[in-house]
Every structure is written in structure tokens, then in C-alpha cells.
Design a protein that fits this description.
β11 and β12 form a beta hairpin. The protein is built from 3 helices and 12 strands; from the N terminus they run ββαβββαβαββββββ. It is mainly beta. The chain folds into 2 domains: 89 residues, Elongation Factor Tu (Ef-tu), domain 3; 62 residues, PRC-barrel domain (SH3 type barrels, Roll). The chain starts with a strand and ends in a 9-residue tail after the last strand.
Length: 171
């Protein structure tokens, strides 16, 4: 049975220009499917439903105009707002190498020999790749979420196998 989930598709950043356009940090691997003229998003913190009336890419950044945001002051007021979408887990997980963050959080992390290393407490975005945030020995360890280091993700059994480089889990 599928579960409805609210995910962050993007986060509104700084105003761009004087006419209400805002930058959006995209938090989805399928931006064209989520961001288009007419797309609607719930917001967190709750600012009501927002609708995209224009968008464009500029120097690698998504710039969006939202309905009702017509000047820089209004754009500044919505800065740091998450844009949320409702999805169905099964419908949105067609890529074998894509997982919902909420499904990874809580998974046990073990090495190739099955030795427990901790628990996933989050996923952090970085310029190069996502990082699994693993609670280990009273601290958080950032594990690059790449196949060479994370060869197996078994969400159904809440288990992630890692092959960490030497020193990654050392104090």
C-alpha cells in the first residue's frame, strides 16, 4: 500500500532583482517534473499555497516568480521557505538509485562484515554528492552517498551496507 508523503522540492532563497523573482535551491533530482509554470506548492513555514507564474535558469540557479510576489520586499518575506509536494512513495521511486530521505533515516549502517556502525539520522546535500549522516559513537559521521562507499541500500529491511575508507569512523 502506498503512503502519501510531503517532500521538500525546493527552498526559496534570496530575492533576485526588484520585481519579486526569487532563487530556489532545488531539492529534487527531477526539477522539470516539479518546477513548471502553474506548479503549486504547500509551504513550510505555512505561508499558504504558492503557484509558479514564471521560471528560468540563470547561471545554474533556478529563478522563480510566484503568484502575488511582485516586489523585492515581498520576495524577502518568503526567503527560507520550503516548497513542499505531496507524493506517493511507489509512484515516485522508479529510479533504482533514488531513495526518499525519510526512508533512509533510522536505517542501521553496517560494514561489509555486518558489524554495526550506527544509524542514519539524516542526509546532507553537498556540492559533490549527498552525504549520509550516521550517528556513531556519540557523534555524526558524514558518509559520501556514492556506490563505491555505499554499495547496498536495503530500505525494506532498514539496513545500509557501507565500505568506508580507512579513518572515516575513527575518533
Amino acid at each position: 500500500m502506498s503512503e502519501r508523503v510531503r517532500l521538500v522540492a525546493g527552498r526559496i532563497g534570496r530575492a533576485h532583482g526588484l520585481r519579486g523573482e526569487v532563487s530556489v535551491a532545488v531539492r529534487t533530482d527531477d526539477a522539470p517534473r516539479r518546477f513548471f509554470v502553474g506548479a503549486q506548492f504547500d509551504t513550510d513555514p505555512d505561508r499558504g499555497l504558492v503557484r509558479v507564474v514564471a521560471l528560468r535558469w540563470h547561471q545554474g540557479r533556478l529563478l522563480v516568480t510566484l503568484d502575488g510576489i511582485t516586489d523585492r520586499d515581498a520576495a524577502d518575506r518568503v526567503c527560507d521557505t520550503d516548497l513542499l509536494v505531496d507524493v506517493t512513495d511507489e509512484a515516485d521511486s522508479s529510479d533504482d538509485d533514488a531513495w526518499f530521505v525519510h526512508r533512509l533515516v533510522g536505517c542501521a549502517v553496517v560494514d561489509r562484515q555486518g558489524t554495526g556502525l550506527g544509524t542514519v539520522v539524516g542526509v546532507a546535500a553537498s556540492a559533490a554528492q549527498d552525504l549520509l549522516v550516521v550517528a556513531y559513537d556519540g557523534r555524526d559521521v558524514l558518509v559520501p552517498f556514492v556506490t563505491a562507499i555505499v554499495p547496498e541500500v536495503d530500505v525494506a529491511n532498514a539496513r545500509i551496507v557501507v565500505d568506508p575508507p580507512g579513518g572515516l569512523f575513527d575518533a
